[in-house]
Amino acid sequence: MSHPTPLDPATLAQRSAAVNRWRPWELVLWAALWATPFVFPQHGALINEVAIFALFAVSLDLVLGYAGIVSLGHAAFFGVGAYGAALFAKEVMPDPLVGLAVATGLGALLGLITSPMIVRGTDLTRLMVTMGVALVLMELANKFSDITGGADGLQGVMMGPLLGRFEFDLGAHTASIYSLTVLFLVFAFLRRLVHSPFGQSLQALRDNRLRVASLGMTVQGRLAAVYTLAGGLAGAAGALLAQTTGFASLDVLDFHRSADVLLALVIGGTGWLWGGLIGAIAFKVMHDVISAFTPQYWTFWIGLILVVLMLVGRERMFSPRQWFKRGGQR
Amino acid sequence: MLTLLFDGIAYGMLLFVLALGLAVTMGLMNFINLAHGAFAMAGGYVLVVLMQRHGWPFLACLPVAFIVPALIGALLERTLYRPLYNKPHLDQVLFSIGLTFMAVAAVDYVMGSTQQNVQLPDWLRQRWEIGSGALLLGVGAYRLFIVAVCVALAVVLQLILSGTRFGSRLRAAVDDPRVAAGLGIPVNRVFLLTFAVGSGLAGLGGALGADVLGLDPNFPLKFMVYFLIVCAVGGTSSITGPLLAALLLGIADVFGKYYVPSLGSFIVYVLMIVILLWRPQGLFTRGGAR
Q1: In a domain, A112, yes or no
Q2: Number of other residues whose CB lies within 10 A of the CB of residue A292
Q3: Closest to A134 measured CA to CA, from A184, A56, A75, A196
Q4: Residue A3 falls inside a structural domain
Q5: Which residue out of B30, B93, B223, B271 would a mutagenesis test of the A interface target, given it has the greatest number of A Cβ atoms within 10 Å?
Q6: Mean pLDDT, to the nearest integer, of B146-158?
Q7: With contacts defined as CB-CB under 8 Å, which chain B residues touch A136?
Q8: What is the pLDDT of residues A84-142, one digit of tens each?
Q9: What contacts A317, CB < 8 A, 6 or more positions away?
């Protein structure tokens, strides 16, 4: 084996550009996604819901798939964004874009505040702390029911027209395009980010924290940055939900929401951005199909899918090439 | 005051028995098992079915409520859990959440979603009051019974763990499974037995606590956080850690809900976060290898 020669900067730049370039199938998929609100205008609400869920899943992917932090409380950011956007629209001004920015800021702020908590400890500790933050927020939202509406939810959120021109209609046509646009912008931004040196360093962190630290990179700073960013994006997802449905309730902070998004992300595959999107679509479709014939017991089937998925192995399930290989340890 | 303290202790002891199995399996196999509450629920439902549909006496149901979840636990350990020991924590979490979802929906389907009531025998429904004023101590016979059973269990378990051959094997396996296996300890069988006993204890706790904690299909999800708090705060390397953590949690919860009911479990959660930030390895662990 020959000694690897160091690459000159020009080749490096060329290679990173090649990684950055959008693949043809990605463009095709995005074109298809963009077409859905126009081809199926009657399903606007569903498309909107899926787009929001996908944004939420992508933000979790940043934490879980890229930085390797197991979180069971990602709904905390979603909930803060949703309540933030709803209250902002109700009390300050009804413009959706300003509200979205405010909610993103709130989510990011919460991420920044809580990020020191996820740096230390074992997986179990992190799991507990992330879950604890979501639970604390839920208790608070329940307690201050004169602000948040408590168990009844925060009703009567009136949104102004988008960009001053497009009203949110009942068929959720505007809403679906709005959410898809935000999702696309975030996706394009993150695609750029995860291929940048910063994104690479995150993955290195996930794989071997000690080695990254000994390379001289700040572990805490990077984790804090990615957690803040993911918090902001989850906050944006929550804001989209509150704005497009005109409603926010305790449900946005529920444990079920954190678990669902984790499940969706795992179905789609962690550690690549499409995982969040594909997972969200698959999860919603699955939810619709299963709850069509057993509305009450659909969690049983979701649970079964999870169990089988984990026993077979996440990687093997979705890459047919590995189906015939002997399963090895990760 | 004292009544609250006593209720808190009873609640804490109950949580200890419920969560002990989780703490031991977590320490032993480094496996995050969120489905532990499902075994507790199984015990509770065994008690309810036997008492209400078949008219068994309360005391006779308790051993069954131990045995049935223990058998289920042994079976599941053999078939489903074992392949996941070496997987990343994320897989284990998702797997056990899936199992919990299945258990919740299945119990909902079979038993209905309503809360189950337990008809306690008369001798457990008495209540005594000692002292007066601020030092008034009201002791319910049922809570006294819970405390007695749980203390007895804790003592017996501690004796087994420190005095028997199985106990020393278990401790060796907890400390380092690979070296223990290399010394000829049948680690797999130790795992299996421990898992079964832990599930059985959870079932017993669920049966004992059916009246205090309430029993409905959402039980595993509702109390999952509490079990995890006991393990995370108490550490998983001994049984005194979880015991103290469970008592702390029980007392804090009872007092919190009594004095500031509108905040609900807020105090417990905040307390947990603070403790975990202060000592990420748990309050009562030495060192912290993992």
Answers
A1: yes
A2: 9
A3: A75
A4: no
A5: B93
A6: 87
A7: 266, 269-270, 273
A8: 888 888 888 878 888 889 999 999 999 888 888 787 767 778 888 888 888 888 888 88
A9: A309
Is A315 a member of any domain? no
Per domain, the residue ranges of chain B are 2-221
Distance from CA of A114 to the nearest CA of B (A): 11
The answer to whether B29 touches B43, Cβ cutoff 8 Å, is no
Report how many domains make up chain A: 1
User: Using the beta-carbon criterion (under 8 Å), do B281 and A305 form an inter-chain contact?
Assistant: no
User: What's chain B's average pLDDT?
Assistant: 81
pLDDT of residue A3: 57
ipTM: 0.76
A293 against B156, higher pLDDT: B156
In a domain, A2, yes or no: no
Closest CB from A262, A263, A297 relative to B105: A297
Torsion sign across C-alpha atoms A243, A245, A248, A253: negative
As given in the structure block, the two tokens for residue A144 are: 């201050």
**CATH code where residue A242 lies:** 1.10.3470
- CA dist A139 and B263 (Å) reads 6
Average pLDDT over residues A237-243: 88
pLDDT at A5: 62
| Distances in whole angstroms, Cα of residue B265 to Cα of each of A130, A137, B250, B254, B273 | 16, 11, 11, 9, 13
State residue B289's pLDDT score: 42
Burial of B85 by CB count in 10 Å (0-12 exposed, 13-18 middle, 19+ buried)?
middle
Give percent of chain B with pLDDT exceeding 90.
1
Label residues A101-135 b or e (16+ Cβ within 10 Å = b): bbbbebbbbbbbebbebbbebbbbbbbbbbbbbbb
- Domain span at A233: 34-293
* Displacement of CA B147 from its chain's centroid (Å): 14
Contact B273, A136 (CB under 8 A): yes
At A183, list the tokens: 């999702």
At residue A231, the pLDDT reads 92
Residue B284 amino acid letter: F
Smallest CA–CA distance from A69 into chain B, residue? B90
